[in-house]
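Thread: "does anyone have the structure for this chain?"

Original post by V.I.:
We have the sequence but no experimental structure in hand. Need at least a predicted one for the grant figures.
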Amino acid sequence: MAHDHHDDAHRQGHSHGHTDIDWAAMGPVLESSAELFASLYERALGWLAREVTEPGLIVDAGSGPGVVACLFAETFPGARIVAVDGAEPLLERARARAERQGVADRFGTITGELPDALDELDYPADLLWAGRSLHHLGDQRAALAAFARRLAPGGTLALMEGGLPPRYLPRDIGIGRPGLQARIDAVEAEWFTRMRHDLPGHVAETEDWPALLAAAGLKPARSHTFLLDLPAPASDRARAYVIASLSHMRDRLTQALDAEDNATLDRLLDPDDEAGLRRRPDVFVLEAHTVHTAVRAV
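Reply from O.Q.:
Generated one for you, tokens below.
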């Protein structure tokens, strides 16, 4: 299942309708986090390029600050790219990024909530990418059907959902009880279920993504999992990402963890503690995200 260990918004820059977040202030953090995942995205887009040839229009549904959308522009130099997101400050960053990378002439944005914002597209998409944005929509089945309707005949929907929980530290970190991240996984899974349940129009679904894509009238094609493997010692950017991820998780899940695990997290997040994340040499980033593709009939 998907894990929002850093609420995906913080990790990859999707706004997902959170109205209480200062997106202008969050923008640089989101952009940096997404850039950390660039190698994973590049491999995923290279994989897509082998089955999607010469697309005219590519839509990034839930684009955030446009890191992935600009990678699409680089991977498919003949395509027009449209980034769709609910947060205009993030789309401002996306447009600025496209300008810096010299692709602004074929880069557009649409501000609005998914899936309705896709109605503003001028013509159908040859490739529609939804990178960990679908699980923030209450009725995922209806959203996928809406995505499918925006595809051109023969167009591809690429859905990044699922994978494995992240790992940042060894099982035994020398403080507290070993297995901290495994216990965090269990708490995160409960949090994710509550988050989904509280979404407007929530409908429970079995997370069989190829089956849901088929139910949307598409022909499931392939699924592949891509790894982000940044071994210890972590770079400054990777370390900052881990600190931000665990800080966000600590703020959200304090009551669900026992006193010993909370004390361990406090030490990990203490900038002055020798065993903390800022100083320890064994911090790494290991994450796995799965992409599922499906094609609209010609």
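V.I.: this helps a lot. The mean pLDDT is 92.
O.Q.: and The first helix runs from residue 9 to 12.
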